[in-house]
Every structure is written in structure tokens, then in C-alpha cells.
Amino acid sequence: MEEINREHPEYRAQGDVWPKYWDLYVGGEQMIRNADRYLVARKNEPGDVFRERLQRAYYENYIGSIIDWYGATLFRREPVLAFEGGDERGRAFYNEFAEDCDLRGSTLSEFFRRQVVNALVLGKSYVVVDFPRIGRKATTRAEEDELGMSRAYLCEYPASSLINWERDEQGELEWAVLRTERVVQGADGEAGVERRWIRYDRETFRIYRQVETGAVKGETGLVDEGRHGLAGQRRVPVFEFSVGEGLWLMNKAASLQLEHFNKSNGLSWALTNGLFAMPVVYTDRKFEQLVGDSYYLQLGQDDKFGWTEPEGHVYEIALRNLDRLKDEIYRVCYLMSQAGGGLSKATAMTGYSKERDYAITQEVLRGFGDSVKETMKRVLKAIVAGREDAIGVDVAGLDEFDIGDFSDELADAERLLGMGIESGTLRKQVFKKLAMKFLCDARQEVKDQIAREIEGG
Predict the structure, then answer these.
(1) How many structural domains does the chain have?
(2) Is the pLDDT of residue 275 over 80?
(3) What is the pTM for the complete model shown?
(4) In Å, how far are 48, 82, 173, 243, 250 from 125, measured between CA atoms?
(5) What is the DSSP secondary structure assignment for residue 173, as one 8-state letter?
(6) 413 in a domain, yes or no?
(7) Among 224-238, 257-271, 292-306, where is mean pLDDT lowest?
């Protein structure tokens, strides 16, 4: 019990970072609701003025759009699953698994798109391979399939869910503790919080549960335990998905986005106050007249009247600084081609420069794609071993992101095949690649059947 409540030092170090990064990603009302955490008060600023600034706060969410763009562009063409072997039952399962991998209707591509977004925001995410627990033991593989015990599925957990763990010398998990929270409603209608802890080691799992309602915190009790689906491999069924520190986009852009948030709100506040100019009377006499829309002023012969109005030089500097911050957010996220919106025509980027900068973006996308494919392969191979299928699984794709004219690719393939290279394997691979690209949105069962027909000649 004590072990599940402990938190790893690395987890504690990130405890205040993850909520901030998630607010910056989501934006909207969530960011405004928590604006007091991020909008910096000026020195000796009156409390009522700061509260009014909080009420008027707004947020230009560049980093959220950037991360969503990467997630959408990466999976513009779905990854291709390739199977080898004559296990028809296994092929049928993985075709079904690709269309619903989490028993919630998510395709494998949709599932891993969410992992990419989570990893770009929080640095990493976790995938758990699980099998249904029926409560009885099957004697044959056919009985396992009939009872649904072999229907592997995936569960997703954000980085903030893994609270404690231990690794061996090779970096593999010895054990891990995942914690989740959700709002529940009691019989009396009062809302509460249900917490669950799942502890996995190399062979077993244990699930603990606690419900907190109001000020009453219930007992933490064991609700389930047993052997997990990867016990035969002596492997913890928790797989980490990460794009690496260098490609953790939110970590790169968060400080810039917060600086932009404070500068843009400061400029907005100054502009708003500038719209309500204050009258100024220049006179040597004691001034006691009322000032307002329904009043007039009576001035002496040498008196003068005017309005306070800022000259605007600081506004121009602030606008340039905001443009620079916006461009820097795009730059550190490897989207240089989308930066420079505030540049004049004289300094605008050439077509070659934009093409070169987008080539850098393409390499970053390929890096993300490699991380996805590697994690997907590890997960699928673990499922193959757990189910004891006589089949090989490979993952390809996620390496081309320009959706151009398909006729260009077709022409390149025709030229390659026209070179007279005597290789039946080359011919089959070219045909499969063209077919999978053209039918990237087809069901996995259809794509698998086409690939088998091409392989069969």
C-alpha cells in the first residue's frame, strides 16, 4: 500500500510543469480560467486593477495549433501494416485490431495520433497492452478465442499517470504504478473523485481503488489482481512513447508562448486605456468645474484645454516584439516557412528558402514517424507473442507528407519498372507501395487482401 502512494523523483520534478503545458496547449476558456497563474502582476500593481486585467485576458494559441498540425500531417497517410505467415486466424484478428484497437472504436492510426499529441505536449505517453479477464480458465486456444480472452486491446495513459517505476540495467521496466482519477457521482448525487492505482510487474498486476467525497476520504482497497497478458514474456505491459527531449515541442515553445501571452495582454490593456483619454486643463486658477458628457468648461483667457494621448512609439516597439515572439515560436518548432508573417516584401523569403525550410519540417515529421513505427512494432510484436500467433508483423509508411498529384508517383514507378531490373520482388514491392498509398483510407482487411494477392502474383 505504501509503495503505490510513493512518487518517483522524476515525477515530482514535473508535477507543476504538466498542468501548465496542458493549459498552454488547450487554450480557450481553460487558459483564461487559469490566467492568474500565468499573467504576471506589475510591481505594486493595485489588486483591483490586476483583477480587471485578468477579466480582460485573452490568449493567442500558436503552440496548440502547431502541435495539432503535426499530429494531423503525420497521419495524413495512415501507416501500413504488413503480415507474413499463413495464420489466417491471426490475420483476421489483426485486421480487426487495426480498426478497433482499444475496444472503443479507435483505429490504430487514431490511437497513435493521440499519443503523438500527448508526447508533443507532455514529453511522453504510455500504452498498456491488456487482455479481457473472464474469470475462468480456458483449456484450448479455440476456447480462449470463443470467450474473448485472446482479444488484446490497448489502453492509453498520459505522462502524468505514471507516478512510480523502477528499471533494470537495460532500461526495461521492472515494475510500474499508474494512477488515474475520474469524477463519480454518489447515490445522494454528491460528486466525488475515484482514484485507481494499477501496479504492474513482470508477471502480475494489482488494482487498488479509493473514493473521496467532499472531506471524506475512503479507504484504499485492493479490487483485483492476477497475471497479466504478457506474463509469459516476463515483461511489464507498459510501453513508453516518446519523441525525445529535442523534439518535445511544448518544452521548446512554452516560455515564448507565456512571454507572448503577457506582452500581448499588456499591449491590449494599454490600448484599451488609451481609448479613454483623460482631459487636461492648463490654468493657474483653482479648478473646481465638473467634467463629463453633459457638462461644459468655462476657461479663462490664458487657460488651455487638451487630452492625454500616448504618442505610440512604445506600441510600435511592442508590436514588433510580438511579431518576433510569434516567429520564434514557429522557428523553434521547425516551421520556419510559416514564420515571418510580419516581414515586408523587401525582406520576404524566396521560394527556395521556403522549400528548404519545409524540407527541415519534413525531416522532423519523419523523425516523429520513426518513433511511432518503432513503438507500434514493439506493441504489436508483444501482442503476437502474448497470443502465440504464427505470424510476422511489420509497420511501414509515415515518411511522405506532401499530398501531391498521384500521377507523379505513378509516373516515377513506371520509369523505375521500365529500367528492366530483373527482380520480381522489386515489382511486387512497387505495386504494393502504390496500392497502399492510393488506398490509404481503406480498411486494413482490404489492404491486407490486396497485399496478399500482389504477393501471390
Answers:
(1) 2
(2) no
(3) 0.81
(4) 41, 25, 15, 10, 14
(5) E
(6) yes
(7) 292-306
Residue 391 in this model has a pLDDT that exceeds 50: yes
Tell whether 201 is covered by a domain: no
Last residue of a domain, one of 308, 326, 344: 344
Indicate the SS3 state at residue 158. strand
**Residue 429 counted as domain residue:** yes
In the structure grid, which three cell numbers stand for residue 81, read together?
501494416
Domain-located, residue 284: yes
**SS3 readout for 221-282:** EEEEEEECCCHHHCCCCEEEEECCHHHCHHHHHHHHHHHHHHHHHHHHHHHHHHHCCCEEEE
* Domain identity same for 332 and 413: no
Beta bridge partners of residue 248, listed in sequence order:
none
Amino acid identity of residue 63, one-letter, is I
Q: Which three cell numbers stand for residue 401?
A: 507528407
CA 267 to chain centre: 30
Cα(78)–Cα(107) distance, integer angstroms: 10
Residue 86 is predicted with a pLDDT of: 78
Q: How many CA atoms lie within 13 A of 331 on its CB side?
A: 9
How far apart CA 343 and CA 457 sit, in angstroms, is 56
Same domain assignment for residues 416 and 340: no
The domain of 293 spans 249-344
